């Protein structure tokens, strides 16, 4: 089944992100899945945990209202095309991992063309083919049934806890105020992470 998010919302999401691309389409469909599985929660009820920093995260921010500033968008730098969604009121959670089959076997050709584009050797024909493949992949992502787009599994441990306001401590080296939970102790001093890394580095 094609994407059920309205064309107007899709256009607004593209405007928010700045361009249309396959990565953004993944995020749009992930947001659609979250709304379906969690029964249309308000943005203050939903938490998104993303395992990537790609374009699709912007779609989640725009369509779901999940943001780092509100504490309901959490980035875990795992390099996976995976998104977990939770509804705080019920504790229900699901994880959606992009199904490799959703890419329709285009990866090898895409990788070759992207390499040529990246090193500046792509011919005009290769550039045109890349544009054609990207458009086809984006269209595929926007029309696949969600069940074919993602591998979905329940998440049992519940939503991450809401953010807490903690004391800020002055770093003993640079003097800058740092949230207590992000400080490190070294040689009896309280340090921010950058200063700790400078004195603790092993190489």
UniProtKB/TrEMBL annotation:
It comes from the Bacteria. Its EC number is 1.2.7.12. Residues 16-150 form the Formylmethanofuran dehydrogenase subunit E domain. The keyword Metal-binding applies. It holds the Pfam family zf-dskA_traR. SUPFAM superfamilies: FwdE-like (SSF143555). InterPro entries: FmdE, FmdEsu_dom, tRNA_methyltr_O, Znf_DskA_TraR. It is an enzyme of class 1 (oxidoreductase). Residues 168-199 form the Zinc finger DksA/TraR C4-type domain. GO terms for molecular function: formylmethanofuran dehydrogenase activity. Keywords: Metal-binding, Oxidoreductase, Zinc, Zinc-finger. This is Formylmethanofuran dehydrogenase subunit E. The lineage of its organism: Bacteria, Pseudomonadati, Thermodesulfobacteriota, Desulfovibrionia, Desulfovibrionales.
